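[User] Could I get a sequence and structure tokens?

[Assistant]
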Amino acid sequence: MAGPVPGEVNKIVLAYSGGLDTSVILQWLKDTYRCEVVTFTADLGQGEELEPARRKAENAGVKEIYIDDLREEFVRDFVFPMFRANALYEGVYLLGTSIARPLIAKRQIEIARETGADAVSHGATGKGNDQVRFELGYYALEPDIKVIAPWREWDLGSRTRLLDYAREHQIPISRDRIDEPPYSTDANLLHISYEGRALEDPWIEPDEDMYTRSVAPEGAPEEPAYVEIDFEAGDPVAVDGEALGPAALLTRLNELGGANGIGRVDIVENRYVGMKSRGIYETPGGTVLIAAHRGIESITLDRGAAHLKDELMPRYAELVYNGFWFSPEREMIQAAIDESQKFVTGTVRLKLFKGSVSVVGRRSPVSLYSEQHVTFEADSVYDQQDAEGFIRLNALRLRLMNARRA
């Protein structure tokens, strides 16, 4: 057994959804470790009713049950900082699952302290990235915490064994859990993901009825929709002139993006644990938001700062993907990014049409864009003769190198 030794654990905080996996894990923890288990269910905007999880935990004899609405904190303190960096993993993935894990880990550790628990547990498998993300978060925040990862410890290695265990222990299994769709999903306010089972062959196109947050681009409205997003210091604060809090703003953009077929990606990504994995993601609001953020940066960021941000972005995205949210290097990069955002303030207008999002307007009270300097008409602020010396100095090393070849 790779985890703590039974008998050495006094109380466990379990990240609990109330689904088949975590319901079985709850019973297995009680059977294996003979201690009290605290359940924690996070509302991250997954769009599911969470009270059934409370009832299931109560029916299982759990005395301490936490169901926390973390939507505002999730968007404000995790999604928005990540979007200031324009983070895309491998150039495509908007990190919807990755960015939720450090918040769940953080709250689990807080609950462990509140309840006097000495261990935490999660339902991530031994093949995926989430086990890494959860556990790096746990150890960063509470170095001596005991971590129990049932999928790395038990012998319930298949769905059939899970169902058998549930029946043996009289764990209620709803019909929708027995007839689950042929793929695994994870959802929060930023995105929903689909992986595994029927999607494991990267050649096979998924069925249209799989998608839940967006219409098919070809079925989107025949006329484009326009939206304006206001930014202050790098963060979005209003949509079409209406001030909104972080969670409400992302919800609004999800609705607008989804209605216009925006935010679907089908990728094969490189997991941190070493294998390649096919994933399909719907991130309608995030796709609109990253386009808008780049749009406002285009007129408010200095060229050097903008280019340096683009150099840092892949490293930042990789740190988030791999589970290093609480690492000093992520915090160092974040500090640099946040410094760059002080003047990223203004309004972006976007056109949404059949799966595409385009920036069609941008303005800022602190814009660096100077029409006087860029105009093709006559001006009195730029001496075109200055360019000659600029070019000759930049060409000097090229001319010397060419002379050597001769």
